[in-house]
Amino acid sequence: MQLKRAISVLLASAMIVAMTACSAGGGSSVETGSKSSTANLPAFDSLHLGTDYKNIKANLKFLTHKTDLVNTTFKDYVQQFQKLYPNINITYEGITDYEKEMSNRITTKDWGDICMVPAFITNKADLPTYFIPLGDQKTLANTYNYTNMWMYQGKTYGIASNGNIQGMVYNKKVYQNAGIMTLPKTPDEFLTDLQKIKDFSGGKVVPMYTNFAAQWTMTAWDAYIGINATGSPDYMNITLPHEKNPFSKKKDMTGPYAVYYTLYEATKRHLIEADPTTTDWEGSKPMMNKGQIGTMALGSWAISQVQTAGSNSADIGYMPFPITVNGKQYATVAGDYNYGINVTSSNDNKIAAMLYVKWLVEKSGFAASNGLISTVKDDPLPTILQESFKNVTLLEDTPAKAGEEALYGNINTDSELSLNSNYTHVAKIVEAAEGASESLDGIMDDWNKKWTAAQQKYGALK
């Protein structure tokens, strides 16, 4: 199998163009006469749906990655919202290759009014260039979850559509048939269980399906290296930017190395699909529903998609990532894509967009109907997550310290690893393990060197 050549082809197709800053243009507005002004906008949490701004008129464009919902669910949402605000019209545009397309469009002034904040914005100092502040983060955090995800200098620039727990989707029946009655809590226990699945099924069930060819799915592995692997909410934004050789192996098999070890060894031991370059994301969902796949590394957002891909929804479960820190398991809880509002829209459109986003978060029922975690603090955890996460400590990442908001993003970009935003470094692990071309220790040493060089550039090494 020519994985190395395949990766180079995938990389070429996934290149993201460099972003340039966009400036605000002139125009009329409700209060200030400036299209780019945000000083007199209401705070997101202060808005009262159905009573505030009843007569406001606006035509909004909404860019979304959920192409399958544009003409169904989202169309229904607009109709419901317009019962409260009949003069606000919303047109959705679904984008298939969302991150790549948005890397081009976000630098323009007129991409629309609402979008899902792209993951490639790793430097939070760029947020005010593109989006309006929705309010003070500490104040918003009284009502909403995940308000620090897109925070800069105390202001929140995005509100999560819903929340996700970082774990793994698995087929409960497959695990039970293989004699696995207790979910694994360490990487080696997990690898042993994957081997049991392979042996029991005679190779007919893929123990762990990587979804390698989809590219973006590989970044799920980066999402485990923080709280899941360390138990520390400070790790990603406070510890990692300063830590010496963070990708080195630890004696207790925690931390980033343990996460990537799990993927490397599963690949090396042939516990994944026979040819990763031919995986099919859409096809993997009914395969897992039928019991042809044991496990997939995906956020909890994927649960409902796998459940509804066939007639065996009861067989689908969600398990903690198999790492234990000092006898306990942890999981990162984080916002999914956040709603962001264009800083260059007119004030009428900004306010109308805030009203619609607030309705989506508080009234649409999107999270509950899809088994997702609500952005609203008082809403309960979905039943499927209560089952296997009752003894798992759920934590959100701590924001960066004041003055260091851009540090992680700068180091992440300059190291060329692009954790959580680009798949190629994770793909290299599969390539190396499949072809026995490089050891995991060799890969991790290379990552440490790149990370250290970037740390030194920004004076971040302790």
UniProtKB/TrEMBL annotation:
<dbReference type="Pfam" id="PF01547">
    <property type="entry name" value="SBP_bac_1"/>
</dbReference>
<keyword id="KW-0732">Signal</keyword>
<dbReference type="InterPro" id="IPR006059">
    <property type="entry name" value="SBP"/>
</dbReference>
<keyword id="KW-0564">Palmitate</keyword>
<keyword id="KW-1003">Cell membrane</keyword>
<feature type="signal peptide">
    <location>
        <begin position="1"/>
        <end position="23"/>
    </location>
</feature>
<keyword id="KW-0449">Lipoprotein</keyword>
<dbReference type="InterPro" id="IPR050490">
    <property type="entry name" value="Bact_solute-bd_prot1"/>
</dbReference>
<keyword id="KW-0472">Membrane</keyword>
<protein>
    <recommendedName>
        <fullName>Sugar ABC transporter substrate-binding protein</fullName>
    </recommendedName>
</protein>
